[in-house]
Amino acid sequence: MQKILMWVVMALFLVTPVLAETTIKEQGKEIGQAFKKGGKETGHAFKEGGKEVGQGFKEMGKETGKESKKAGRTMGDAFKQMGRDIKGFFTGK
Questions:
Q1: Which of 36, 81, 84, 91 has the fewest CB atoms within 10 Å, measured from its CB?
Q2: Helix (H, G, I), strand (E, B), or coil: what is residue 20?
Q3: CA torsion, ordered 16, 21, 22, 27, to nearest 10 deg
Q4: pTM of the prediction?
Q5: Are 18 and 27 in contact (CB under 8 A)?
Q6: Containing structural domain, residue 52
Q7: pLDDT digits (tens, 9 = 90+) for 45-81
Q8: How many angstroms from the chain centroid is the CA of residue 4?
Q9: Could you give the number of structural domains in the chain?
């Protein structure tokens, strides 16, 4: 929102001194180009921000997956040991 407001103010400052020399049609073109340029930059900023957020979620997902895998291995090892203990109990070892 601040970027848009900044572009509007900049467009007005750029157009105001030229008012005496240009027609309304030309002024409209200049203002339109300023909005177009501002819109592209704002869109680019949103796109880059979205990429960063996506990368953050991706990394967080990888870390969560690694931790889940470690927890699964630990649980598997615990069940293996419990099976060995039960076997040892019944075989007398």
A1: 91
A2: coil
A3: -10
A4: 0.39
A5: yes
A6: 2-91
A7: 778 888 888 888 888 888 888 888 888 889 988 899 9
A8: 21
A9: 1
